[in-house]
């Protein structure tokens, strides 16, 4: 495979490959026009060969994109141009079209990889990985497998350190945290292939490691007044409002994860002892929560006046027929987004505002009230209190009390 091609030849080859991959007619028309603009830009500057620097120059001059266009926000009109540059760069480097976004139900494993992939899935299941964890782990792995297929690799035994290096280069535009997760997934899988005889060399040793230490982000939290405003925006006279109010209270007051709320069953409620006992989906640990006064009445109101008659054992169900539990992949994000908007709460750019942020707010409130990390860890269902320690960064009053007075230090020097 040639590493350098004339830009117009490279663009023509990319279009041919996209046609082979059955890309939509309108998509092909748009990319052809975009490639023509790039080629014209190259001719004006007497550039014959495509390079990453040329692509960055084109985007910066024509669309005002920064060098790190894949990390920074960019104009909407530049989306097609960025995609075109990435297609040219990927094809020149790898000889394949790398499809970074795939939303396919029922992934079809390439025949040459099916046996090993199926065996790996079974091992993951035997290790009791959560369904959500398995899904993301396998999705990352399928991206790699698709890359191998496009490179005409006919078996895992044909993988080389050079192919691994090329793939790592292809994922560089991802976020640092995503890159770390992908590398970890591939390292574990390659180790599995070696231990089970699918490859003769332990290629997991060829996977690069990130040496840069990443500080965990400070969790996004809500002010108590914002939580009250959001709850107050719910129409509790409607069935949907009764259901959503109960769900949001379970998160805001008890810190229950969204996945556990979806899995909550009628049998988990003990009205005699006023407790909710569940086995957490993420940790597999049994946890008991108190049914607080307002939480209890919200649940009763929903169960008596809003929940439709249905056969499912789950407490929270869809309110449109067929009446059944929420889907496996539902994260309930739309619920909190809906009432945030109704309450007129503005969410700053970059701040997370999903249901999980209400758990963060509960932890921060408890910390400000003097609760220990051990207690907060137990309430949130953390197996390790290290997971809870990140909330120390959100206790601004506590941090301020730890600050030193420079003048006082100088006096005692």
UniProtKB/TrEMBL annotation:
Ranges for domain Core-binding (CB): 111-194
Keywords: DNA recombination, DNA-binding
Pfam families (UniProt xref): Phage_integrase
Ranges for domain Tyr recombinase: 217-404
Gene3D superfamilies documented for this protein: 1.10.150.130, Intergrase catalytic core
Protein name: Tyrosine-type recombinase/integrase
Keyword DNA-binding: yes
Keyword Heme: no
SUPFAM superfamilies per record: DNA breaking-rejoining enzymes
Record organism: Fodinisporobacter ferrooxydans
């Amino acid at each position: 495979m040639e590493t350098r091609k004339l830009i117009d030849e490279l663009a023509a080859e990319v279009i041919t490959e996209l046609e082979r991959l059955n890309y939509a007619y309108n998509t092909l028309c748009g990319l052809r026009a975009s490639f023509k603009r790039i080629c014209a830009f190259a001719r004006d500057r007497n550039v014959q060969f495509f390079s990453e620097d040329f692509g960055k120059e084109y985007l910066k001059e024509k669309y005002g994109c920064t060098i790190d266009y894949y990390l920074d926000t960019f104009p909407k009109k530049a989306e097609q141009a960025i995609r075109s540059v990435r297609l040219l760069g990927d094809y020149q480097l790898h000889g394949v079209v790398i499809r970074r976004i795939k939303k396919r139900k029922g992934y079809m494993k390439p025949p040459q990889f099916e046996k090993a992939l199926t065996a790996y899935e079974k091992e993951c299941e035997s290790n009791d990985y959560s369904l959500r964890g398995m899904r993301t782990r396998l999705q990352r792995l399928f991206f790699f497998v698709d890359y191998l297929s496009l490179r005409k690799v006919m078996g895992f035994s044909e993988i080389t350190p050079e192919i691994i290096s090329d793939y790592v280069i292809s994922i560089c535009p991802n976020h640092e945290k995503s890159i770390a997760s992908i590398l970890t997934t591939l390292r574990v899988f390659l180790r599995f292939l070696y231990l089970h005889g699918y490859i003769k060399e332990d290629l997991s040793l060829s996977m690069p490691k990130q040496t840069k230490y990443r500080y965990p982000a400070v969790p996004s939290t809500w002010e108590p007044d914002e939580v009250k405003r959001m709850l107050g925006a719910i129409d509790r006279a409607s069935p949907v409002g009764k259901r959503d109010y109960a769900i949001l209270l379970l998160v805001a007051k008890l810190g229950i994860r969204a996945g556990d709320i979806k899995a909550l069953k009628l049998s988990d409620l003990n009205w005699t002892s006023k407790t909710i006992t569940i086995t957490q989906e993420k940790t597999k640990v049994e946890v008991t929560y108190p049914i607080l006064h307002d939480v209890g009445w919200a649940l009763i109101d929903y169960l008596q006046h809003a929940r439709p008659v249905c056969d499912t054992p789950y407490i929270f169900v869809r309110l449109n027929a067929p009446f059944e539990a929420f889907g496996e992949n539902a994260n309930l994000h739309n619920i909190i987004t809906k009432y945030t908007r109704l309450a007129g709460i503005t969410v700053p750019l970059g701040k997370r505002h999903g249901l999980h942020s209400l758990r963060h707010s509960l932890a921060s409130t408890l910390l400000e009230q003097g609760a220990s990390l051990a207690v907060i860890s137990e309430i949130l269902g953390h197996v390790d209190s290290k997971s809870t320690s990140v909330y120390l960064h959100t206790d601004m009053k506590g941090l301020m009390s730890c600050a030193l007075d420079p003048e006082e230090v100088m006096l005692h020097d």
